[in-house]
What we know:
The complex is a heterodimer.
Chain A (H helix, E strand, L loop, with lengths): L4 E3 L2 E4 L5 E6 L6 E8 L3 E9 L2 E5 L6 E5 L5 E5 L8 E8 L9 E3 L3 E5 L1
Parallel strand pairs in A: 2-11
Antiparallel strand pairs in A: 1-3, 3-8, 4-5, 4-9, 5-6, 7-8, 9-10, 9-11
Chain B lengths: L2 E3 L4 E5 L4 E3 L2 E3 L5 E7 L5 E7 L5 E3 L5 E5 L4 E6 L8 E8 L8 E2 L3 E6 L1
Parallel strand pairs in B: 2-12
Antiparallel strand pairs in B: 1-4, 3-9, 5-6, 5-10, 7-8, 8-9, 10-11, 10-12
Amino acid sequence: KAGVTQTPRYLIKTRGQQVTLSCSPISGHRSVSWYQQTPGQGLQFLFEYFSETQRNKGNFPGRFSGRQFSNSRSEMNVSTLELGDSALYLCASSSPGGGVTDTQYFGPGTRLTVL
Amino acid sequence: AQSVTQLGSHVSVSEGALVLLRCNYSSSVPPYLFWYVQYPNQGLQLLLKYTTGATLVKGINGFEAEFKKSETSFHLTKPSAHMSDAAEYFCAVSVPGGGNKLTFGTGTQLKVEL
């Protein structure tokens, strides 16, 4: 099986712009979670989607949003980019049941740089 | 809310020596505990997890961890370090009813020296 794929792998934007990141989960996985990784804040949970519904949300401003499509692919959008949004954005998908004890498989991430 | 503390942001061991990475958690309900490894420019890979049952959990690449409720700990060990173990290690916690939300520790960078 192919792993979790994220596109693009690298992205450079300027302040005030918006950006959309894409995540394709492992075939058959219905849960997709997003995390932000920065040197200062570490790994922080953004949100989780399961069968096209947001199941969980972290403590991020409304500029961060996401969605999941019927094929389980997910996108996250960040509007009005700030310098502090520069980070590695990781996507993870979990086994068909989507339960909390199911293993989450992470993609390689999208490195976003905001200038 | 749950939290994780990883003691030691950097740990250095000699090749062949014991690896011990410390993790303590805080949770008001019985937690699920995980260890992930991250190699440079890559995502996270699950090493092992504790959900219920046996408190000594064996994972990939010779790693294991023991859930100790009385000490609220979930330390990661490996009897003999290999150069390929050099990476960053993250301990994480989730709770029943919390979906797939993982709360991570700040990570421990493991260096393995000849």
